[in-house]
Write a structure and sequence with these properties.
2 copies of one chain form a homodimer. Helix content of chain A is 39%, strand content 21%. Chain A is α+β, with helices and mostly antiparallel strands and 548 residues long. In chain A, a hairpin with a 2-residue loop joins strand 4 and strand 5.
Chain lengths: 548, 548
């Protein structure tokens, strides 16, 4: 028996065929989104804007599944008829405006070219003003709404984006019958749901991005939404009243889509979750295990048994029951840019090609921590955790006339490691245990220098997920549990996930220096980040030179 | 009648033949120092170290003068016999350890390869610890010593360097009979002085770098020097007791050197001054006029009539009567790196060639101030004025994933402009009038973008010296006055100096934005620089984004 995991990333979609018995990956494929710049629609006048054409998702869906199945067929015994379920994970919050038939506005001729009628990609930050206003209104009128997401509502999230659309493109907003998160929309299409209010929405997106909670009546009440804009209150009835964890099915595969994809009709479709949430499952997340998916940005996921109480944790993106594993609180944190920062430095600023990364890594791999006298802040795309502020920017401190391109490259890696440590420390401060860290994503697999720096900076042993497609694997695991191949998630994870043999252990000498550098990082971080409004930074440069 | 100006820069020496009647430049030549990296001896283990081989100075002297005279001979009426005097200016503080016969230690086989036996180039910062200690000891025991140099003694200066040599290379120190500033040593060689205590030392170097003043008994007293090291107290007797302004002659050209250079024997040699001091004269310095020599670093010079009283100005490098023009206080300030910062960014970090500067300038020349959202600190080589701290380092703030190489290039230019404004404001705060700014140096002539930014940032019209060899011209003017071609310096300056036709006037729109950016610069400057030890930097990044 097999299941299929479909993982929608920022630039491409992957499909993965998995054997339920042991998690063996029989076939996979990646299809790039055809539109825009690397799949993203941009606005040269506003670097905050990032949209995606919904048609790209369906194009990639059909192509990637067919390719993955074709690859799997090379394995003896595999037959597409033995696929018993499929799961979908996507980026988010990536809401799509749809009409009354669950068809994206962008699919109609009228709106096809309008950037506001597209999917609003997770990393779109155009709605930073709205986010700040929602934060303020919630703090004043419904503090409970934001207590679980670090008391700050983000510009990357559902209501900020919808409100911004209403403000800058009222005609698009008026034309939208409803808005659907990408992770809910793809399953709904596969299940043939043609009424957006009937979509089985996942609690992952709802709880983390849309202020949904069973503690109040689901989505924010109309009275509160009307404080933002009456049009949002009016929209509420055309969204949803109940969101589900992964014990529920999003529907069954229609005959039409079964034919398009080459799969059995009627097989169950797992509830949609965000990529890193299913990725956490694919990495073997459990209480005490932090999963880091390190890519263009980083997401950190942990779980705490729903039988315990979890305090509100300032700056953490969300604490949502059932968001990752049924029966557990799902905790999410993250860094807005990681791989993107290295790419920015090497390819945009230094005008190097992709191969330059390897040369720079080699140049600084053997340098001792602190040897460059540099300290950087990893805020080139704002700070998600623990400051939750998209209007922060990157900093490089300690440049001399001898500072090299490679030294700054390493300082940027270290900056992201300090950002990672700030997250781990914040979890621990609030009683969330972290005994092990499992990493996934291209960078975790391919960059041993970065992994060792992360171990040295955080003091945690860095493990690496056995699957290089952890998100798709997690989706496939969810489908396997749903289809009855395993009795529950822990059993399915035990059977279907693994770790790579390599483990990066902290080196005490490096740890000592990084502890000092981290203290300096926090001084600068807290000052520019607003945690300390009477900072004494007069020693920072001198301490950096002393470490050097 | 003609005089000759000889200008020792950081990487090369220039000779210039000037007509006394009108300042016409008849012939010039530049000779690079043959040793080390671009004429500088470096230590790969310590980027603070910068030395120079004294033999390079004599090699360059002979070659440059002969070439300049050869060039001048192409002008009808010129004859080397009509050269009536010569002047020398050099970098500084650049002290040379010499033996009892005024021969540099480095000229002996024993010390030829020893880095500590060479000339300690102005930009050598190895003695930063000693500088801090001298500052502290002076503050405690002789506050008057440092009151005129901003209450801070620099690592670039005479006593710091000598003390550092005594500490790290005691054998070199013991072998040195005396130490002579480069600007005094070259004239002394030309004048055939073979006893270092008989050298006519200039008050420019003595007053600005060696704590010499007529207010006390010349150099610091032995009791104070013994607090540093008894060996320094013991050395005092082998230095000098009196220093002179440019009304005095350093001596007469020996027959031997006259022959080597192709000049008349016995002509007077002007007292030696630092390059920018004679450069200020070559730019027409007068009360109310600030002269900026913009090159790898920047020096700022002003004068105030000796009949007035000048208060102590914190952070200004020096206030010395007669240091520039006889009868005036000479005021000096500066920035430790300017052109060096652009070179560092383009050539070392971005690995571009020298032509890249032009491309980057073109890319950002038409951008509006503030458009990049970037703010930088110009401290890649420490800060000379107004913080007087070599242990400060460069900073770049405001990086996003869209920040380009060219935008950072412009931000670095702006950073040096903010540094320039901080100096001008400091002068004005203490009652030194600045009505006009005359710039000299390669950057002032070749970079109209930078000059316009300086005008917009400082609010001053930027004028450009008519001579592109202002330092050598100033030396030649000093020689002309000394030889009697003109009755005094103001007359000689009126006749022999000029301005280029171009003038960069501040544009009100740009000024408005730069006023805001400068306020942010000062926030960050004062915080990292230690002027404000309870800084609130939480708005900096947001204000930068708002300006953008």
């Amino acid at each position: 028996m097999y299941t299929l995991g479909i993982d929608y990333g920022t630039n491409s979609v992957r499909a993965l065929v998995v054997r339920c018995a042991d998690g063996a990956e029989l076939g996979s494929s990646t299809v790039n989104y055809p539109s825009g710049s690397q799949g993203i629609l941009l606005d040269p006048r506003d670097h905050h804007l990032a949209r995606q054409h919904p048609a790209d998702y369906l194009f990639g869906l059909e192509k990637s599944v067919r390719l993955a199945l074709a690859a799997a067929k090379k394995t003896r015994g595999f037959d597409a008829k033995k696929v018993i379920g499929l799961g979908v994970d996507t980026t988010g919050s990536s809401p799509i405006p749809v009409d009354a038939h669950n068809v994206p506005l962008a699919s109609s001729k009228k709106w096809a070219k309008n950037l506001h009628a597209q999917c609003w990609l997770w990393k779109d930050h155009t709605s930073w003003r709205e986010a700040a206003e929602i934060t303020q209104l919630a703090a004043q009128h419904r503090p409970q709404f934001i207590a679980k997401c670090g008391n700050t509502y983000s510009s990357e999230w559902f209501w900020s984006k919808l409100w911004h659309c209403r403000t800058v493109a009222p005609k698009v907003f008026a034309a939208a019958h409803s808005w659907v998160e990408l992770c809910d929309w793809v399953p709904s299409v596969l299940a043939g749901i043609t009424d957006p209010t009937q979509i089985k929405r996942g609690i992952c997106a709802a709880g983390h991005k849309s202020l949904y909670s069973d503690d109040w009546a689901g989505l924010p009440d109309k009275e509160f939404l009307a404080l933002l804009d009456p049009a949002l209150a009016e929209l509420r009835d055309r969204l949803y009243t109940k969101a589900y964890d992964a014990t529920e099915s999003a529907g069954a595969l229609t005959a039409e889509w079964a034919k398009k994809l080459g799969l059995p009709a009627g097989i169950p479709i797992a509830i949609g979750e965000f990529d890193v949430h299913y990725g956490a499952i694919g990495c073997g997340v459990a209480e005490g295990t932090l999963v880091k998916v390190i890519g263009t940005s980083t997401c950190d996921c942990g779980v705490v048994s729903a039988s315990k109480s979890v305090p509100d944790i300032p700056g953490i993106c969300g604490i949502v029951p059932g968001a990752i594993l049924p029966g557990f609180y799902g905790l999410e944190a993250g860094q807005s840019a990681v791989g993107d920062i290295f790419k920015w430095w090497v390819e945009l600023v230094c005008e190097g090609n992709a191969a330059r990364h390897a040369r720079l890594t080699q140049e600084v791999a053997k340098r001792k921590p602190g040897a460059s006298g540099l300290l950087a802040l990893d805020w080139q795309n704002g700070n998600r955790t623990i400051l939750v502020d998209p209007l922060l920017t990157g900093v490089i401190i300690g440049c001399t006339l001898h500072t090299t391109q490679a030294e700054i490259y390493r300082a940027l890696i270290e900056a992201t490691a300090f950002g990672a440590r700030a997250i781990i420390e914040r979890f621990k401060e609030y009683g969330v245990p972290i005994d092990r860290v499992v990493c996934a994503g291209g960078i975790a697999e391919k960059n041993p220098l970065l992994m060792q720096i992360y171990a040295d900076v955080t003091g945690c042993t860095m493990l690496v997920s056995g699957s290089s497609q952890a998100c798709a694997l997690g989706s496939a695991i969810s489908a396997a549990v749903l289809a009855g191949a395993h009795p529950d998630f822990p059993t399915a994870q035990r059977k279907m996930t693994s770790l790579k043999k390599v483990a990066f252990k902290p080196k005490p000498d490096a740890q000592k220096i990084y502890n000092q550098l981290y203290a300096l990082y926090r001084q600068v971080h807290d000052s520019f980040g607003g945690l300390n409004k009477s900072a004494d930074l007069s020693r920072v440069m001198k301490d950096l030179l002393a470490l050097k």
